[in-house]
Design goal:
The protein is of the alpha/beta class. The protein has two domains: 255 residues, 3-Layer(aba) Sandwich (Rossmann fold), CATH 3.40.50; 162 residues, 3-Layer(aba) Sandwich (Rossmann fold), CATH 3.40.50. 43% of the residues are buried. It starts with 5 loop residues before the first strand and ends with a helix. It is built from 16 helices and 16 strands.
Length: 435
């Protein structure tokens, strides 16, 4: 029986019902807490996943009420207890939450689940559709909110105005409509600020993201705690992991194929780098357009979505990982995935990437297509330069983004806030675990 902290994690998406890397990052953190002897219950919203994945349910039958929702947590093989909120009305339930900033349907059940778990810590993640600001006063615990995106200051979460350009000033209603989403009128009242007062600590994933939150008016202090990655586990029986996926040298792009990932200038540039290929791993709304853009370029190939084992193999043998986002990412998980594999990074000189790479020598930054092409050609022509970057990449990862480098920072924050709030029960658990 676990005797550590009881940690409740609230999030809209959680694997396997998730999109992008932040849901996977939440799962990694939950599993890490369990490995350290803590009890973790993750509550997530399956209705939102069903809606956005194109399976909104019939919406037929009686009006949904909390009494009709048999939400029962189940223990996974990894030791994480998971509760999936699924009503079968996957259109109306997320829409009500998005429009009101409250868990209109699931409020009573969420309160009951939290109270029954009696957490020492509530860790809010992507809460936009599981309950919005309306769940920030649920439960009594040390409360931490992680800003995986820019939802706290941006209705579309990504500071990508009109779905085509970087946002430098607020035009939120018009921008939200350009995404074909209804405006959230509660954002123009004092509701969000009142609810934020229930949170003890706000965490940004990078210094850049913290600065952007403050630039767009977020009034609270934020601490910076980055993502981490576990070490790659490669079975000795899995010989595929040790072989390069192809003989020709290649650069790898991995991520969702959305407009702000910036492949519009990367793909055509491959005509100037005939000695290497560009392999694109991922799926998304821009897939068809980018395949058309690549027509006639024999050295551009689309791999579709890869599982973590295959992605690791492609990363390990790439000349470099291309990180080309033209939007304001809060971090760069694909960047540290490459560094973990000792793979150099070619990253756009924008947002958080200069912060992550610094002067480590683990990669190169580019601000123009010409700079990117020159860097690609140099890596093709100079294997020794690639080898030096490879060693620097692995060193940088081990210093900053391993599990042991990051997770203790959460526990330090919890201990500090428990002391500040006079939660002797939490402090006793932490002291007992330390002993």
């Amino acid at each position: 029986m676990m005797t550590g902290l009881r940690i409740c994690m609230l999030t809209t998406f959680y694997p396997p019902e998730n999109f992008g890397g932040d849901g996977i990052a939440i799962q990694r953190l939950a599993r890490s807490f369990v490995r350290r002897g803590h009890s973790v219950c993750v509550i997530h919203d399956a209705d939102s996943y069903n809606l956005l994945s194109g399976n909104p349910g019939s919406g037929e039958g009686d009006v949904v009420t909390p009494a009709r929702l048999p939400f029962v947590p189940t223990m996974g093989e990894d030791g994480v207890e998971v509760c999936s909120l699924e009503t079968g009305h996957s259109l109306i339930v997320p829409l009500l939450t998005q429009q009101t900033g409250r868990p209109v349907v699931n409020a009573a059940r969420l309160r009951g689940l939290i109270d029954s778990f009696a957490p020492h810590v509530i860790l809010y993640n992507n809460i936009s559709l599981i309950g919005g600001p309306g769940i920030l006063d649920f439960g009594s615990a040390v409360k931490i909110l992680e800003a995986h995106e820019h939802w706290l200051v941006c209705p579309t979460h990504v500071l990508w105005r009109y779905n085509r350009e970087l946002c430098d000033r607020r035009k939120c209603i018009r921008c939200t409509l350009s995404y074909r989403r209804p405006p959230q009128l509660w954002r123009y009242t004092g509701y969000l600020q009142r609810k934020l007062a229930n949170v003890d600590v706000f965490i940004a994933k990078s210094e850049f993201s913290r600065a952007k939150h403050h630039e767009f008016g977020f009034p609270r202090e934020m601490e910076v705690v980055p993502y981490f990655l576990p070490e790659i586990e490669v079975s000795s029986a899995d010989q595929r992991s040790s072989r390069a996926p192809q003989e020709r040298p290649y650069f790898l792009f991995a991520g969702r194929l959305t407009a702000n990932k910036g492949l519009d200038d990367v793909i055509p540039a491959m005509a100037a780098v005939p000695a290497a290929d560009l392999l694109i791993a991922g799926e998304g709304e821009m897939g068809a357009a980018w395949r058309q853009l690549a027509a006639g370029l024999s050295n551009v190939r689309f791999l579709g979505r890869l599982d973590q084992t295959e992605l690791g193999r492609y990363n390990r043998h790439a000349l470099a990982s291309i990180v080309s986002s033209i939007g304001y990412e809060t971090f760069g998980i694909t960047l540290i995935e490459a560094l973990r594999s000792a793979t150099p990074v070619l990253a756009r000189r924008l947002g958080t990437y200069p912060e992550l790479l610094g002067d480590s020598g683990a990669g190169l930054l580019f601000g123009s297509t010409g700079e990117m092409v020159e860097a690609m050609r140099n890596l093709v022509a100079d294997p020794l330069a690639r080898e030096r970057m490879s060693r620097a990449a692995r060193t940088l990862f081990e210093e900053k983004w391993t599990e042991d480098a990051v997770v203790p920072r959460y526990l330090s924050i919890i201990e500090r806030e428990a002391g500040r709030k006079g939660r002797e029960d939490i402090l006793q658990v932490i002291r007992r675990e330390a002993a």
